[in-house]
Amino acid sequence: MKIYLSDTKATEQYGAKLWAELPDNGLIFLHGELGAGKTTLVRGFLRAAGYTGAVKSPTYTLVEEYTIAGRKIFHFDLYRVVDPEELEWIGIRDYFDQDCVCFIEWPDMGKGFLPEPDWVIKLVPDGEGRTLEMKSTH
Length: 138
Fold this sequence. Notes:
By secondary structure, the protein is of the alpha/beta class. About 25% of the residues lie in helices and about 35% in strands.
C-alpha cells in the first residue's frame, strides 16, 4: 500500500491510525532518510495512545520506552550504531521477548541481529510531503 502524506500533520494522523489498526505486539521497521518523517509517524502513534510528553528520536539513547494503556512500546533509532553487535550488548533480544510494539528506525544498521519484521514502512520525501509505503511481511 502506498499513500501520499501532505505534511507533518498528515503523517501524525497516519501514525494515529496505526495505533487503532496494529495488534498489541509486533516489530515495525521504519526506512527513510533523515527528516523523512519516521519519528513523526511514531509520535502520531503515541499521541493516539494518549501519550502527551515529548517524543524525540532516540538517536543518542538508542531506545525510548513507553507504557500506555497497558501496551508497551519501544522506539529504537539505530542510526548511530557502528557495529550491529552493539545490539547484543544492550540486550536487544530481551525487548523482543516482551509483549510489545517495537518501532525500529534505520534497521539496516542492525542487520544480522534483528528478527524479521512484521511490517515494513518506507517514507520518502515527495514535494512538500512524503510518500508512505507499508507492507506486511506475513
